[in-house]
Predict the structure.
Amino acid sequence: MTDERVRRKVSSILSADKVMAAFQAQSILFEKFISMARSPNELEIIKHMLRETIEISTELTGAELGSLILLDNEGLVTDSVLSRDEISPELSSMLIKSVLEDGLAGWVMRHQKMGLVNETEKDDRWLTFPDQPYVARSALSLPIISNEMLLGVLTLMHSMPDHFTKKIVELTKITTNQIALVLENVYYFNNLNDSFESLGQANKKIEAYSQALDRELEKCRQIQIDFLPKQLPKIPGWHIEEFFFPATRVSGDFYDAFILPCGYTGLVIGDVCDKGVGSALFMALFRSLIRIFTGQAQLNRTLVDTKSRTVGGTRDSASIRKYNHVEALRAVALTNDYIAQEHNEMCMFATLFFGVLDPNNGKLIYINGGHEAIFVIGQNGVKESLLPTGPAVGTFHGVQFKYKEIQLQPGEILFAYTDGVIDARSPNGNRFTRKRLKSLLSQPAVDALKLMQRIGTHLFAHIGKAPQEDDITMLTIQRKIQ
């Protein structure tokens, strides 16, 4: 998900992706060091490694500026470098002297622990100088320590307050531990034979660890694929199509289509908050719970209030009646209560659309739990938007979810998607947008497959060579014209 409010709600979980990033940083530095170790100019090697360290650190954290100060055994400055060259050596020397005496870097050096400044204007540890050539509103400073020896202080800066989130801090801590190993080798690289042997072994360990992570991620991907439908159901008079393209090996998106008792069809599309392995695990949990609780809808118990058109998770023993397709919707409330109660500390939730279709007459009852609007496509384009009828699933225990009913006419298409479609960015950073999607949906289409192919073609032409930031999932069902 890309909504910033959602990101703030999600707890920071240390994922395999973060560990990989840290070890990749170490690997890059090792490779740079090896390529330069044969140079006769020791100062050139150290300067180059300092700059590479800052560039990798700023790239991993999104920082705009960085500085690295190296220290000897007595805490004296042996070398330093800033991420920008426009500062003169004299000004640089003055800045370093001041920050080590009264600033954040000095505080980190004396306490040998991380220093985080969310707002520089409100933290006494941050020094602002007259005619300062850069703007810093937030800063993160960490000691680089190896074998209990303080090798230096890395400081990262950004022009906006509160840039360095908890997630970024955790990643930077891991990264500095890896950087410390490299810088220690830079200090003691005089014995090249021993250093090369050590570096080679380290690279082998990193490669082995990387391969192990790859294997585990591949297992996770295969398991996740097994949770998605291997084949969409064949429903007389209807045609179902899906499109699933995860941003990484594992995905937080999911979709499902399955046959319910009495010939009804269940349609599900969802998006678990956050990304990575954690989201993939919860995706499997959400999908499984929906299926399990929907299957339990055959029991002679009902949690459906037909007067208020809501479903909830509290059993009402007085409202027992014969099963119908409305009963299946209670799976949303039961899933919500299970996640909210059993996994509340994880703060994981999903936006989810669950519809139950009666193929005989085209009636669809549905719950939209905080998901993107689902579109009904007619001959003249978007006929109706199925907006949220309740909150995201898994947020709070005991939530009531309203349900609604629509009628799909012959030829009409129900189009569902996740926000990875409209939030997809082009190489220059522009989003695909809901407006562009609706424009494509408004153009005549022969069938659901052609419609989805049209959207996919325009979407990936828009993305181009830009990295895919979020999972992309689409699900359609069309009532055939008899």
Summary: The chain has two domains: 4-218, 228-479. The CA atoms of residues 312 and 400 lie 5 Å apart.
